[in-house]
Amino acid sequence: MEVIAIQKSTLEGMKNELKELLELTENATQKYAPIFKEEKWLDNQEVCLMMNITKRTLQTYKDKGLLPYSRLNRKNYYKLSDVQALLKAGQPYKSNEDGVIDQ
């Protein structure tokens, strides 16, 4: 077991910085929690399964602005209501078994 000795003032400074970091995290959580509670968010795989489309078709929907999305940590998320609205409107592009997009 290794023992490391530091000055009490240094330890107190570290404690204070950790408390500030915790407060920032709690504030951010409180600020954005209502957004995620209001709406269910889906990832790429969930949307593809729900709509019965390929990832390429999903990319086409994004490229053409047909399906809005948000990006968080290099991952895309879609509002369930947006996916349902696109399903209700009818899918403008859908891949067939060969991966060819039919219009």
Automatic annotation (TrEMBL):
Source organism of the structure: Leadbetterella byssophila (strain DSM 17132 / JCM 16389 / KACC 11308 / NBRC 106382 / 4M15)
Annotated coiled-coil segments of the chain:
4-31
Entry-linked InterPro entries: DNA-bd_dom_put_sf (IPR009061), HTH_17 (IPR041657)
The source's superkingdom equals Bacteria
Protein known as: Helix-turn-helix domain-containing protein
Q: Where is the Helix-turn-helix domain positioned along the sequence?
A: 41-89
Tagged with keyword Coiled coil = yes
Q: What is the lineage of its organism?
A: Bacteria, Pseudomonadati, Bacteroidota, Cytophagia, Cytophagales
Which is a Pfam family this sequence falls into? HTH_17
Which UniProt key words apply to this protein?
Answer: Coiled coil
Q: Does the keyword Coiled coil apply?
A: yes
